User: What shape does this take?
Amino acid sequence: MGAKDAIHVALPPRVSVVVAAREPPDTIEQALLSLARQIQAAEIEVLVVDGSGDGKIEALVQRCPGFRHIAMPGGNLPALKAEAIRQARGEFVAVLDPSDAAAPNWVGEMLAAFDDASVSAVGGTVLLSGPKTASNVAAYLFEYGAFNPPIANGETLGDLPGNNVAYRRSALINTCADILASEGFNKPFFHERIRACGGQLIIRASMRVDHLTDYSLLDFGVRRFHYGRCFGAVRARRAPLARKILYRVFAPVVVPMLIVRHLHRNVRHAENRRLLSVAVFSLCAICIFWGVGEWLGYWFGAGRSCQELY
Assistant: This one.
């Protein structure tokens, strides 16, 4: 076959980037623009999963050539992300929250991490770029304080940031297939399964996003309550009977344990210690919101909390 007769087949993207939102935050346009401006933009597809149904997110996506809009009105966050994962074509699947802007070399840094075949998932740095109010700082420290630089590169036995993380697609579709089908994309249970199957989770500090949020304490606290209750309910449901009993017996310890854990971690980190000085009481309040939710989840199930996840 001559060169003129050759059939050119478009290669699939290397990376599928999932951006999921139930309601369009003010920052979603910045998040999408940061993906359009990636140095490796030609190697990615962007799937924007829209649970709002009001047309605002779809209008933004239409302004970004090549981005795909997936409508799922009323879906919760795990379900939205799960649908995008099922539709993803890339070898790697990355998750960027609509409240975050990725650095221009974000995709390049994650691809460099996956050069090591033993790596199943990689997460990176999360910088606080929103207002430095007590509630916003506390929300950041609760979720992402562990990823405020300096952070160590390499394998981690801890968590990865849910707003700045990428996986081998096989780890999500194959290793975690049953969890994906029953729970949607539920990060703690995915990571537990990936590790149990010998996968490696690593930190790459140069894979950076800017966290752009501006939370009120009540708004963020209610969100954490729902996350905590959903987490506790799913954890108890998936556990054998003996462990389920232990979860219920020790549920009252969750609140003080969270407070001690978060204060200890942030006091040890020089930059977080400075931030903590304006947010210590708000951080403790957020721990209470989550802890009470988890406690109720162990005893009484999720209620509607899993449907309320943002």
Summary: The first helix runs from residue 28 to 36. The CA atoms of residues 21 and 75 lie 9 Å apart. The first strand starts at residue 15 and ends at 21. The chain has a mean pLDDT of 94.
